[in-house]
Please model this.
Amino acid sequence: MEADIAIHANAPAIETDSLVSLPASRVALWIFLAGEIMIFGGLVACFMLYRIAAGGWTDEASHVDWQVGTINTVVLLTSSLTMILALAAVRRNDQQAVKRFLAVTVALGIAFLGVKAFEYHGHIVEGFTPSKGMFWSFYYTMTGLHALHVTGGIVVNSILLIMAIKGTLWARGETRLEIAGLYWHFVDVVWILLFPLLYLSLEAK
Amino acid sequence: MNTEATQDTAKFYFQIWEWLIILLVVGTVIVFMPVSRGLALTIVFAVAAIKGVLVVRNYMHLKHEHLIFYLIAGLPPLLVIIMLLALLPDIAFRH
Amino acid sequence: MEAQLSHIEHVDHHHHPQSLISKYVFSTDHKMIAKQYLAVGLLMALVGGAMAYLIRVQLAWPGKPVTGWGFIAPGSYMAMVTMHGTIMVFFVAMPILLGAFGNYLIPLMIGAPDMAFPRLNMMSVWTLFVASLVLIASMLVPGSAPNAGWTGYPPLSAVPEYSGSTWGINLWLLALALEFSSFLMGGINFVTTAINMRAPGLTFWRLPLVVWMEITASALFLLSVGPLVAGSVMLLLDRVLGTTFYAPSQGGDPLLWQHLFWFFGHPEVYVIALPAIGMMMEILPVFARKPMFGYRAIIYSTIIAGFLSLIVWAHHMFVSGMDPRLATPFSILTILISIPFAVMIFAMIATLWRGSIIFSTPMLFTLAALSSFLIGGVTGIFLGSQAADIYLHDSYFVVAHFHYTLFPLLFMGGFAGIYYWFPKMFGKMYSEPLGKLHCVLTFVFFNLTFIPLFMAGFGGAPRRIYFPYGYDFLKPLQHYHVIATYGAIGLLLGQLPFVINLFASMISGRKAETNPWHANTLEWTAPSPPPHGNFEHVPHVVRGPYDYSVPGVAEDWVAQDKVVTVTVAAAG
Amino acid sequence: MISQTFLPGVSTFSGSVDHVINLIFVLAVGWFIVLQGLVIYFAVRYRRRPGVKASFITGESWGQLAWVLVPVALALVCDLGIDAAGGDTWETVKGELPPPAVTVHVMAQQFSWKFTYPGEDGKFGTGHDLVEDALHVPAGQVVHVVLESKDVIHDFFVPALRLKQDILPGRAITAWFNATEPGTYEIACSQLCGPAHFGMRGKVVVDAPNDFNTWLSAERAAQAKKAAADTSATRGNG
Model:
């Protein structure tokens, strides 16, 4: 009873924990990514379950081109590098480099979508539409959802690039680039996992 | 931050990228090597996981973050794995 | 301090004159946004309530035209059942309990001037508004309104020929997608705000329970909704693009949807339940003038219950055709989840013990909610048990059970919250006699409505049966439906005192003091109603939220930011 | 007790399903009365009185928390008891199926039931299958129903047998029962299957074993006669 009173009636002023000093935007973005992981994770889980149930889909899967997929992976990995270099550049206040790296990142993102569109076109010409079978349903759903995220990233990065050119980026440039970068790297990581799932695990030996 | 340090950071990011490309090559080539399908698949997905971790830790700076970020980022994959395992008998092995 | 102020871009808007539109429509003030959520929730409750009326009258006197509507066709009946569920869960419960109270209480209770991201907050409420419009539209498009049940099991929901609903279900899915994104944005905002914006001295172990519950609920929503979003995309593609994710003849699997739905659906129950329980836990100590019993134990229970809720989903599917070997593990996990909830319930009861209880309207509603929720809790054991579920699954027992959990929490808990924070929200006092009348009518008619449905459930009556006279074994159960319908009509009419009270008090109520209840938490240190920016000075918190009747202190309450000295003599 | 008063159970396992329901019912009502009693008692006993201050009890110490944790432990014991009772019943009803005396294929579709019996040769799909509108089964024998659906998800629910099983399109789910009392019972589809879901009613006719055999032979004979007539009709046309 006495101990209770000591704690509750006369509690000393203590500092709030270290969590309040974390940057809110970074916390929020990671929470957002947690939600995104559940969306992509759910989709990937469904894909794996169906693939096991169907016994591999090796026939259908042999129609995707692993070489094109590999090229696209390199494109996206490189865009992640240029994005992080843009952040490094804003930290040393090298505005020219920021613009350069952002422009390359946007260009690589568009290149990724271009290659993706080329792939889609090829598949559809061959008759492999989303309703052609379960593998194709998943292929288009997964890569399509990913491509939407890439598009979103390109839009964000383009806005940052325009702001950089106009000179309005710099006031909170580091935070903005950091947040956009976190998202862009996440999209990259998703592709890193989608690539082997859709392109590589197919050859029945 | 002085110029030398930032040069080092840029170099470090570049090294990570090199590793990512090397791993990509390893993960792709292994499929066409004369190893069993099971081993190939294991390596392919292990390589993908390592690549993912490399990006998350170094490009997304998770290694410098407060522990709570590990919680935020770690719980969802755990839940996905639980869900996947619980659904195996129903969806994957239904026949 | 600097870390906090740096997030508050809008604080400089403080003294600018605001146009009517920027104040009431495109507002970034969390208190106005909370009221917008409340308005959407209450308006949608009217739509959902109207459907409840139609459903109940049809069930009591099947085939007779319903006053105010006319003859209900079987297809319309299914659409009403579907929309009643969808509206009440996603467009009433979540907007009111999470949207309105989360928005209103979190910043005020943690001593922050606003949410971490006010503009994101405005986008959330507007997305919800658009979602509501899309949902209303889904009922009006040609073809049929969505009629595959609020759970939307494929293939019924996936193939238009089976349900007769074409654009209805497409728009229904779109409305849900918008609603989900609204609450994803809201959830990100809530959790970030609670992590980053707490006033100096307000550690997590001094946070009011309702804040804990709101952020746990938001986190649960964030963690559980993802797979269903993926599943909904797949369902929509099945409908519009000809994919076959849920078509068994082409390698699809309808059971997958059920797993994805309930992986979200079960935590969703706690997304609704936790904020309401949190509000009850704010109100109990204030009107018992006594600390909330077992504050830390409740927080641990909340976290454990939250985690467990993510791994118990398959108890909704015992007889769904899933692998029967999964049933017993899931049943054990499910029954285990009653443990943390038992801790919370017992703690609430223990809070009353040796208190000094004031029976104001919020307290009456809290006690009514607690009593009714007890029934909801113990009847859950029937359905968590895999064996009893063989008989009771998808029967009226289930209907009665989830109404006994959701109604007390959503409406009784929600009303308790509305009355309790009414002085803060609107700066006016509500009318106590009308409030008490409202409480009594709600409590009595609620029980009159749903107790008979337990009986029908024990008699084996399946739910979603439009015309029960087709079955011999349902005929003797019919009088339960009649009683329930009288109860439901009384329940709906019993809400009139609330409507009158709400508007009359808002316009001509007595002006509210800053702290009419002598409560401890920080929102009561701000003016009633709080201005844009909330606090004149950032509060410095020195204690937990429930120091009521501390021995040696003259008053029976101590605000969280008040430093007092105790006279030692009283310590014995 | 409770469900028995509404609808008597007539299968070998209906008793154990009812037993679990009764067990939970007794425990649930008991707990409810105690807890609700406490709420009412505390509310009345500790109502506001002038000059009486509430006690400062935080419930933070283990000694005080015991007031919550001991009842919780008690609840846990009850829960585990329920699980133990329920687990066995579940195993009986849905676990390993006992070997069948009669197997019937059930085809559900919007919004009707079809029941298929094998022909004379006792095998399905040999062209002599017997398709019926009502499910006839012998009393006192183990019956397997192989549940399939043509379109959406249905549910094979026979309240009197205490048997409920969803029917998923694309899967054949086998359920079993052993009806004890001859009579006619209703099958209700208990999973929302479309606008006319309410009309998807079926019938189980439980016959004494001899009656069942007589019925089956008669139906088979009628079918054979009809088939012969059809064949000759086709020949006549040809």
Summary: The radius of gyration of chain D is 27 Å. The longest helix of chain D spans residues 62-94. The beta strands of chain D are 102-109, 112-117, 130-132, 135-138, 143-149, 154-158, 163-167, 173-177, 183-189, 201-207. Residues 2-94 of chain D form a domain with the Helix Hairpins fold (CATH 1.10.287).
